[in-house]
Structures are given as structure tokens and as C-alpha cells.
DNA sequence: AGGACCGGGATCTGCCATACTT
DNA sequence: AAGTATGGCAGATCCCGGTCCT
């Protein structure tokens, strides 16, 4: 802690000194493009002074640069600052090469801004390395955007965590007005504060979508509900979003295709499909189209080979749609594992929630139960669908007095 | 009390393509 | 033509515990 804050302080001091020292070089390099290029930040007095002083030099430089090198060179002082901040410049260059060539940037302001919000030097470096354009945002912009995020988050540290996880979500859009409208729009969906909070935590990109894009998805979902004969299409998007927070960062094309896949694969009626989508089916709507179809085909094949009928497959998926979330190989291994452990396909179809647990977990439990001679035919398979705590308590009891409990 | 039933919570970015700006 | 803003894609589950039922 002491170490990190010290190194941050040193960084700031260094940067301040450095910024002053290298500014002349920077203006020299950058000014060739446009003296009035960055109205967004407004030029600070030092900059203006440097500008006047160096205009002559620059115009010479500009002629040379334009005739020989069509591509503008990278901004040396920016590179220096980034290095000083611990930014992975190589990564930054690979991601957004244009940013490194910009004449005027705000890396120092950004650094201090994020630091004032509690971000460590390392976190800030990571953010800029992964989303270099962050460095082009002005202080006013940053403060405004932060304020908007704070409408949903209670603390700065929550926001820092999210930005550290996904710098792009915060910095990709420069349109604060759009963000404000998005918050208003999403709030108007009757998503409660908790859902809104979860939405921004889990899928922060949603808030950088254009308002139109979010609206399009919501309208699309309303249409789906209406088409299926739902009674209150206005409630439907809310239900889907709160069950699947990723839905708004998917394309309507993808969601539509998945809905079609579910309908045709399971031969669902309108009301069956609607019930599925309003329930746990929402969880699998954002899977990639091929993945969902592949998983369904594989499951159908596997179950058929194990003697199941179409109705069994439908029953299993309707009561536990998340089985389609599991990759084909994993799911087959899991089923084999259960069957090898003495559980029938019929039991699985009736209690598909076992499939929610990891293969490793299932295997371990099956082994433990086997050592005490647990009879699944007699006692059912619900033991497998319980929390670790409950399972261990159950095991304890069984090993103390096996006959009583079985 | 013990088990069955059920819903909720965590988690999910980083890259590419393209349209738009300047 | 460079740079920016935005849309879209692939990737791939597991676990806990409240509450109702018997």
C-alpha cells in the first residue's frame, strides 16, 4: 500500500516536471497538423506560449514532414508520459495506433482524475494500455461521465472496479448526452434500482450503446411478446432483461434466430414459447446461434441414443433450459457420468437440475454416496442437487446411522 | 425436522468491421 | 485518408439457500 501510493506520487511529480520539460518538443512534433486542432481542451497558457514560440520552427518541420512522410509520426512526449505511467505502449500501439500520433492528449489529466477516484497506478496503466483512446478525453468530459455513472453506483471504487475490468465500456463513447438518455430510458423500463445496478455492473457496454440500439432491442422484445399472444408486451422486455443482463449487448438478429431455433427444434406452441422466454429460457437467448443449435442437436442425439423420446427431450429442456448453455462435450460427459453412477435417464429427465452441477462435483458426490451404498432407485437423486453444506450434512448423517436415514 | 422446489447470483471481454467525421 | 464512434461477434456454468411441503 505504502509502496504503491509512493510510486504514484513519484509518478505525478515526474509527470508534472516532465510535462513542462517535454512540452516544447511535443508542440513541435504535434503542431504540424493544426494549431487550433483541439478546441475541446482549450489551450492552457503554457501551451499558448509554446505555440507562439514554436510556430516558425513547426512550419519548417511541417513542410518537411508532409513532403517526405505522409504518415504523421508518433507523439514522442505522449510516449514518454505513457512509459512513465507504466503503460504497455506496445499493446496500446497495437490497439489504437492513431491515438499515439495525436498532437494533444490528456494523459496527465486522466491519470490524476482516475487517481483521485482511487485507482492505483497499476490499474490506470492497465486501463490506458487496453483502451488508449481514454487519453483523449477531457477533464470536463470525464467528470460529467463519472457523475452519470455515479447515478447508478454508490461509490467511486465500484466504478473503478468496472473500468479496470472493462475500460472500453467506460471510454468507448464520447457521447455523454446519449449515456444520460440511456439511463433515463432503461429506468423507464421499470427496471428497479437493483436491476439497473446489476445491469451496469454486469454488462456495462449496454450504457455505451446508442439509445437507438437499446430501444430497438426493447421494441423487438415487445414485438416478440405480442406476436406470441402475450398480454402485456411492455412488461416482457423487463422480464427478459432482468433474467439475462447480456441481452442488450446482443444483436436482435442473434436473439431472433435463437428464438426461432428453440421454437422449431422443440416444436413449441406460441404459449409454450412465451412461457419459456419469460422464464429461464431468457438465459440462453444470447448464446451464439451456432452454439445453441449445435448443443441442441448434440443433446437430442445423445438422449435418443439413450432411449429417450422427443417428449422427454422437450420436457427436459423446458424445465431446465440452461442445459443448452453447456457445451456438447461437457454435457455428454456429464450424462455418461450420471448413468455410470447408477442413475437412469428417466430420473434425469424428471430432475434435470442435477445437470447444473459440474461434472467434478457430480463425480465426487457419486463416489461418496457409493461408498455408503446409497440407493438412487429407492431414494431419488435430489441429494445431488443441494449446496455443499447441505450435502455434507446429509453425508454426515448417513454415515452415522445409515439405516435410519435410508 | 428434513427434504423438495425453485429462483437468484456470480459472471462477460477484447477484438474486428464498418460507417461516419473531419 | 486518418481517426473516431459504434455494432457485432465468439467464448461457454455452477452453486447457494429461502421457503414451502410433509
Layout: helices, strands, pairs:
Layout: H1 2-30, H2 45-68, H3 76-85, H4 89-95, H5 107-116, H6 121-130, H7 139-149, H8 156-165, H9 167-171, H10 176-188, H11 193-202, H12 211-227, H13 236-243, H14 252-266, H15 270-278, H16 289-305, H17 310-319, H18 328-340, H19 345-350, H20 359-371, H21 376-379, H22 388-400, H23 402-405
Helix pairs in contact: 1-2, 1-3, 1-5, 7-10, 14-16, 18-20
This protein binds a DNA duplex (22 and 22 nucleotides) through helix 16 and helix 22.
Radius of gyration using CA atoms only: 29 Å
Secondary-structure content class: mainly alpha
Low-confidence stretches: 1-6, 17-69
Q: What string gives the helices and strands in order?
A: HHHHHHHHHHHHHHHHHHHHHHH
Quaternary structure annotation: single chain
Q: Given the structure, what is the number of helices?
A: 23
What average pLDDT do the residues reach?
83
Share of helix among residues? 55-70%
DSSP, total strands: 0
Q: What report would you give on this structure?
A:
28% of the residues are buried. The protein has helices spanning 2-30, 45-68, 76-85, 89-95, 107-116, 121-130, 139-149, 156-165, 167-171, 176-188, 193-202, 211-227, 236-243, 252-266, 270-278, 289-305, 310-319, 328-340, 345-350, 359-371, 376-379, 388-400, 402-405. The protein folds into 3 domains: 2-174, no CATH class; 176-286, Transcription termination factor 3, mitochondrial, CATH 1.25.70; 303-312 and 320-406, no CATH class. The model is unreliable at 1-6 and 17-69 (pLDDT under 50). The chain has 406 residues and is mainly alpha-helical. It binds a DNA duplex (22 and 22 nucleotides) through residues 70-72, 95-96, 98-99, 101-102, 130-131, 133, 136, 165-166, 168-169, 172-175, 198, 202-205, 208-210, 213, 243, 245-246, 249-251, 253-254, 280, 287-288, 290-291, 295, 322, 325-327, 330, 351, 353, 356-358, 361, 380, 382-383, 385-390, 394, 397.
